[in-house]
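We now fix the convention by which a protein and its fold are recorded. The integers have meaning only within a learned vocabulary of local backbone shapes. A record is reproduced here so that you can trace the correspondence yourselves:
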Amino acid sequence: RPQRSQREIQSSSTLLYEVLHRYDPENLLLEQSRREILEKQLEFTRLHHVIQQLQTRPVHFQETEHLTPMAFPLWADRLQSIHTGPDAVTRLEAMLVELNQAAEGKPTTPPVMEEEPEPRPTKRAYTLKRPRLRHGF
């Protein structure tokens, strides 16, 4: 028989996993596959070690003059939840210009930003529950 393609192997693996998961959820192969995913894909042991280290270290806050590259997407996302349409686009473009000028070392004048209104209420009819943590943290 000719060698199987990657697609065939993936399909067979998926089928095997689904059958075992449905009819024999305690199967040792399933447990092994979960462990391998945690270790190889997520580097669970290393991640767990880093989280434990972070819990013992102090948190330092550094106020910045401008939004940082990591903060900009968060700010833009929040802006979209508060404003819609042309107003949000205009503010976003103004902030991009300011940040690019600051990155080039040019003097900037922060855009005048009126006080932001309260965020719109979300359309959730339920409360979010904190996920149950496993593996000791």
